[in-house]
Request: fold
Amino acid sequence: MAAVLCLSALVLTSGCQSPSALLAQRSHYIVGYTDSRCDDPRGQYYNGLTRQAMVVRADGSGRHEIGQSLITRECQAATITGWWPDGRAILNVGYKSPAVGAWEEEHKTFANSTDGQESDCFLVDVETGQAVNLTAVERVSSVNRVLAPWPADPSRATFLASVDGKRRPFTMKLDGTDKRQVSSSSDNFIYGLSPSPDGRRSAYIINYKLYLADADGTNARRVDEDPKHEFRFVPIWSPDSQCLMFLAGEHYNCHPHIVRADGTGLRKIADRGGYRGVVQTLDHPDFHSDSSDLSVWSPDSRWVYHTAKVGKAMELMRVSLDGRVEQLTRSKAGVLDSQPKLSPDGKYVVFGSTRNGARALYVAKADGGSIWPITPSVKGRSQMHPHWRPIFG
Reply:
């Protein structure tokens, strides 16, 4: 491998530091992201075929592709969707036939059938390139996505599988065996399955309605029955498992809300100021080519980071649980800062920005200070969906 990224125990010092010391410190952090072409006028199918799973150090060095060996035929592409606690990258490798791509373009929607589509979830060792396909073991579907650890049981993982045209949550052992469906609501559209970090509770969306349940999906109760809320998206637990955050509201006018783990204390925590809440991923917009801009927690559960419209720019913001709002970026008119993610120790935030004319990634201190690029701004290319590698060892 041309550039090996080795992450050992991270030792950070406090007090005054020289610029060279700060740069050396940043090189210990690693970010995974997806790079792709975004200017092909034929639509998102052809742009999507160029996706590459990439990693880069937080000082911008060591940038390279991972998972190339998993691409074994035409019309396949890889994306990095996160990291395993042991530092392995989570890759989704998907195949979609040209016929399916043409059908989707004609009907302006994604095909629910698994015919002509395949997708599997891999764990990839960044240093050695060794990969394991967990969803191919005792396979329940040819289309599988969103692999993640299962906090309710450290010996298991969770993923979503498409079965009979429906997306259904499953758990499995870490070797891919013993796959079990989590929710019995198999005839509904299930989205955003989120287990609490302490393993006691879970949350998920069915037909844009939010439910809180026990870890195994039982004893579910609906949360947020406000009739003005047409949509609810992507429930995310605070790291301390005390609160659940989700987006709720009208179409393209959803805002961060939080609720306690027992379902009480529901409230809106921030307003996005007219921001539509999506990032256009293509230079020539296509059907469903917007990517959701999600709010995220800080590792200490004290802050929610989000994007809001301020003047004529979309800025990074953070809000404390007591409602104190801080603006982290101050951009020129027309700039979109989006999709923030906090480093595991909460010291830095990575985010996407168009501030230099293309979709690239930047890192800043958690309070918004000292912003610097970690990927190049290249016309016709898009670097998006960043994920910090865990600090381990």
Notes: The chain has a mean pLDDT of 89.
